[in-house]
Amino acid sequence: MKILIAMAWALLTVQMCFAKPLLIEGNLDNWGPIAFVGETQYQPIMDMEQGVVLRAESVKSASGFEYKRTINLNKTPVLQWQWTAELTPYAMIMDSQGIETKMNQFDEREAQGNDFVLRVVVSRKPLFGAGKAIHYVWSHSQPIESSWALDAKNKVIVVSGEGQTTMKWQTLHRHIQKDWQAVFGEQINDINSIMFMTDSDAIGGHAVGYYGDMRTLATKSMAENDQ
């Protein structure tokens, strides 16, 4: 038993040595704003469980923050982050009698429904032209682990949402190399952009979510599996 405990601690120590913090306690010093439609409001707040986190509120907007650094996936192929949702995207619709009703039944797989309360995007962007990206999302209607294409270069993977409680923190781990291989059929060694964004512009609605810490972690890479 002592040997097993020692081995576990040794493995954890190795992983922490190669861990790279990206977003800690809501500190955005290494992140730059990125806007598509309007401006989602990101506010650092104190959470009793997680410490300082970012509250994201989108009102008909789509904007976020981007970390533009090259990450060697052969060293740290796993992305770990924390998040929780408060209000999944919805819009208020007025009928012919002037009565407003809440609408949250829309197809996220279509362009007119491409809104998510929580979204983390990992990308490989060339110097010129469009890059490729995986969008990890909290979905209000699609099953966890389902995926689809926004277009040929952007793929969505649902990692949260189905039957899960809102306002309960989650810690997620995704092996980026394995996910990239699954959705694009390509083996990659690095990425050069990570973005997070809360958006509700497609339906002209409202959404609120929270982002905690984010880091990359060491584990066995695809390159090591090939050896």
Element order: H for helix, E for strand: HEEEEEEEEEEEEEHEEEH
| Classification by helices and strands | mainly beta
Query: What Rg is obtained from the alpha carbons, in whole angstroms?
Result: 19 Å
- Contiguous low-pLDDT stretches (5 residues minimum) are 1-17
**Relative helix content:** 10-25%
Number of separate strands: 16
Q: Between the first and last Cα atoms, what is the distance in angstroms?
A: 31 Å
Shape: globular
Number of helices: 3
Strand content: over 45%
Largest sheet: 7 strands, antiparallel
Instruction: Give the rounded overall mean pLDDT.
Output: 90
Present the secondary structure layout.
Layout: H1 2-18, E1 20-23, E2 32-37, E3 41-47, E4 51-59, E5 62-67, E6 71-72, E7 78-94, E8 100-103, E9 119-124, E10 132-138, E11 147-151, E12 154-160, E13 170-175, H2 176-184, E14 190-191, E15 193-199, E16 206-217, H3 222-225
Parallel strand pairs: 10-12
Antiparallel strand pairs: 1-16, 2-5, 3-4, 4-16, 5-15, 6-14, 7-8, 7-13, 7-16, 9-10, 9-15, 11-12
